[in-house]
Amino acid sequence: MEAAIAGLVAAFFAASLYLMMSKQIIRILLGVAILGNAVNLLLFTCGRLTREVPPIIAGDAMVPDGVTANALPQALILTAIVISFSFFAFLLVLAFRAYQELGTDDTDQMRIAEPLGEAGPPTGY
Amino acid sequence: MATANGPEVDLALAMITVPTPLSDWLVILPVVIPLAAGSLALALRRRIGVQPSIAITALALLLLVDVALLLKVLAEGPVVMVMGRWLPPFGIAFEADAMGVIFATAAAFVALFGAIYARAEFNTTERRYGIYPFLLLLMGGVSGAFLTGDLFNLYVWFEVLLISSFGMIVMGSEKAQIDGAVKYALLNLVATTLFLIATGLLYGTLGTLNMADIARITPTLPADTPLIGIAALFFLAFGMKAAAFPVNTWLPASYHTPRVVVSALFSGLLTKVGVYALLRTLVLLLPVQAAAWSGIAAWVAALTILVGALGALAQSDLRRMLGYLIISGIGAMLAALAVPSEKAVTGALFYAVHSIIVMTALYLAAGVMARCSGGSFDLRRLGGLYGASPLLAGVFLVLALGVAGLPPFSGFWPKLMLVEATLEAGAGWLAASILVGGFLTTLAVGRVWLFAFLRGGPETVADGTSAFTATPLGTLEIRLSLWVPLLVLTLAIILLGLFPAPLHVLATIAASGLIDPAEYIGAVFGGAP
To answer: How does it sit in the membrane (chain B) (predicted)?
Structure first.
């Protein structure tokens, strides 16, 4: 089961890397969204996949009987989902503003901060 | 404690039964103070007048608490507090060791003076952009990153400081800022995501996220445990945060776009968090695995130094030149990863403190220089500043010699230690690249001195004419807000250069605690195995 999910994670990573290497901001953002999901699946798989056994300890025992579901990856993923969602929202607004202000969504043409063909520093006076 | 329908439960097996000593609460105060003050500043965002007071008071308090924590750590060793009283490694631990507290104190020091400078940088209307709430939240994230003892918690603090920095970098919404912010935000987000991937894989391999626990387990693992790839992922992720070559391009693309005080704070705080995390993960947690990569780390360090210094030489914009100087300094610190001896790590920690102060001060000085010459940072338009302000000329000269690593200023000692350590390890070419980088840096900053201070005026003004007049800095309040931070930071550079012994002792303690983690582990787990 882990192997199958690992393959799925690999496919997610491949798709997100492919999209992030694009020049169009909106494609890069789609890549970022898929990357976030890839990482969430990865975290989930790293906690080992088990059936949905709640970690309930019997009244007369000190430890649970048998293997129970691992709660930690779920806590990690919950945190990661919240963070990646808020970042994605910020980046979406930023990209839209960049499109409005700079008139392009092509990263090659975003050269305001680092203009092309600048003169070098002065060599003497 | 007997429950209604069960046996006697021994809580001591799972929880810490004695309350945390009151003095140990000091370890979370550096996070609580900025977050609380940040929320307050956010709630009072319409009361523009009180915002600077909130921030400056909170940051001064933060600095005091950090210094108190530093003294406590020096006296008693690492201070630990576990959230929710769960026994480690189950509870999220906050652990202040010497390295973390040194970084946190230096960060609080520059943040305080950055907040004072921001009073002049942002006029009352512009304070509505929210510089003070963002700065306080950023400091909460930075302090948390330096003091946490849990790897996933470190990721969370990274995200806290990152989202605050996004808010700061677009402050003003100019075209160039949005352009820079796109590159800064995307590449930093990818870097933190890589960090999360590495953390997840490490958890999958070791089953723990507590740093002390990881440091305890890794030496006992069989040799075929797949950790080298994870160490490489950490190196890539934090290298990207620290702007190491070849993943440094986001820094020169963005650090010159925000307000100069924002650049100053970023240069002091953000890349150094990356360096801190590199030292923490690769020297403390995965030393054996990192050693397998040390050859590559040496190349990365050398190329980062040289690319940074050469990039600085090629710039005519003062702020962009400073961006490359940050990169060059990061390279010098990375040399400690290539030869992780105690002396090298000591040098890197000393260099980090020096770099935090000197880079912040240089950006602030650049801001004052631009104000004197009508707002331009271009070497062609600067000039005549020696006549305008001999004090500024002196300050800039101290900072320039400091960043280049010349005695008697603070950059000299860590470079000496790093060169000595690399020579001892037989990496002569790495020592050579540190020295060549220092020489190129001297050329770059010397040229600024030549054009901005010694030349009579901007490019078209002939020497000896009095056509150039400096722009006045403004009211007394503005002048104080500009000069006090600049002078205090410059004084720190001079004092650290003249009296390096105390910081050297601190850095040595921190480095030995990093290389031999017994004390770090013992503080979390007590005497128990």
So the answer is: Multi-pass membrane protein
Q: How many domains does chain A have?
A: 1
Element (H, E) at B94: strand B93-96
The answer to whether residue A116 neighbours chain B at the CB level (below 8 Å) is: no
In the stretch 351-410 of chain B, residues with CB closer than 8 A to chain A read: 379-380
Q: Does any CB of chain A come closer than 8 Å to the CB of residue B459?
A: yes
The model's pLDDT over B204-259, given as tens digits with 9 standing for 90+, comes to 999 899 999 999 998 888 888 889 999 999 999 999 999 998 999 999 999 999 99
Please indicate whether, in this complex, the C-beta atoms of B176 and A79 are within 8 angstroms of each other.
no
**Which of B8, B171, B179, B318 is the mutation pick for testing A, counting most A CBs within 10 A?**
B179
Q: Which residues touch B17 (CB under 8 Å, ≥6 apart)?
A: B11, B85
ipTM of predicted assembly, 2 dp:
0.94
CATH number, domain containing residue A80 = 1.10.287
User: A104 is in which domain, residue-wise?
Assistant: 2-52+69-108
Give the separation between CA B364 and CA B386, rounded to whole angstroms: 17
Q: pTM to 2 decimals?
A: 0.93
CA-wise closest residue to B285 among B241, B335, B231: B231
Q: What distance in Å separates the CA atoms of residue A100 and residue A112, rounded to the nearest whole number? A: 14
Interface test with B, best of A83, A85, A88, A104 (most B CBs within 10 A): A83
In chain A, what is the straight-line distance between the N-terminal and C-terminal CA atoms, in Å?
Answer: 71
Nearest CA in chain B to A30: B186
State the residue for tokens 């700079």.
A102
Instruction: Tell if the CB–CB gap between A101 and B253 is shorter than 8 Å.
Output: no
Which tokens sit at B455? 């030349």
B203 vs A: CB within 8 A: yes
CB nearest B451 (choices: A84, A112, A125)? A125
> Residues 6 or more apart from A14 whose CB is under 8 A from it?
none
Give residue A70's Cα distance to chain centre.
22
B252: chain A residues, CB-CB within 8 Å: 114
pLDDT at B396: 95
Give the minimum alpha-carbon distance from B83 to chain A in angstroms, rounded to a whole number.
Answer: 15
Cis peptide before B89 (omega within 30 of 0): yes
CA distance B495 to B489: 10
Q: Does A117 touch chain B (CB under 8 A)?
A: no
The answer to whether residue A22 is domain-embedded is yes
Cross-chain Cβ contact B185/A20 below 8 Å: no
User: Tokens 């603090």 identify what position?
Assistant: B157
By three-state DSSP, how is residue B222 classified?
Answer: coil
Taking CB atoms and an 8 Å cutoff, what residues of chain A touch B189? Answer: 32, 87, 91
> pLDDT under 70 in chain B at which residues?
1-9, 462-468, 527-529
What residues does each domain of chain B span?
18-521
**Domain annotation covers residue A40:** yes
